Amino acid sequence: MVPLSYYLVLSGILFVCGVLGFLIKRNIITIFMSIELMLNGVNLSFVAFAAQWHALSGQVFVFFVMVVAAAEAAVGLAIIIAVYRTRETLNVDRVNLLKL
Amino acid sequence: MTPNPYLWLIPILPLAGAAINGFFGRRSSKKAITAVALVFCGLAFFLAVVIAARFSPASAPYYFNLAHWLRSGSFQVDFSFYLDQLSLVMLLVVTGVGFLIHIYSVGYMWDDDGYYRFMSYMNLFMFFMLTLVLAKDYLVMFIGWEGVGLSSYLLIGYWFTKDSAAAAGKKAFIVNRIGDCGFLIALFLMIKHFGSLDFTRVFTAVQPLPTETAGAGLLTAIGLLLMVGAAGKSAQIPLYVWLPDAMEGPTPVSALIHAATMVTAGVYMVARSSAIFERAPMAMTVVAIIGTLTALFAATIGIAQTDIKKVLAYSTISQLGYMFMACGVGAFSAGIFHLMTHAFFKGLLFLAAGSVIHGIGGEQDMRKMGGLRVYMPWTFLTMTIATFTIAGFPPLAAFFSKDEILWKAYSSPYGSWVYWLLGVTTAFITSFYMFRLWFLTFFGDYRGAPAAHDVKHQPADAHAMHDKADHDGHGHGEPHESRSVMLGPLFILAILSFVGGWIGIGGRFEHFLAPVFQSGAAAELAHENAGEAAGRGTESLLMLISVSAAILGLLLAWTLYLRRPQLPARIAASLGGLYRAVANKYYIDELYAVLFVKPVVDGSTTILWHGVDQGVIDAAVNDSADAARHVSDTVRHMQSGNLRSYAGWVAAGGAVVIAYMVWMGVR
Question: What's the predicted TM-score (pTM) here?
Answer without folding.
Answer: 0.79
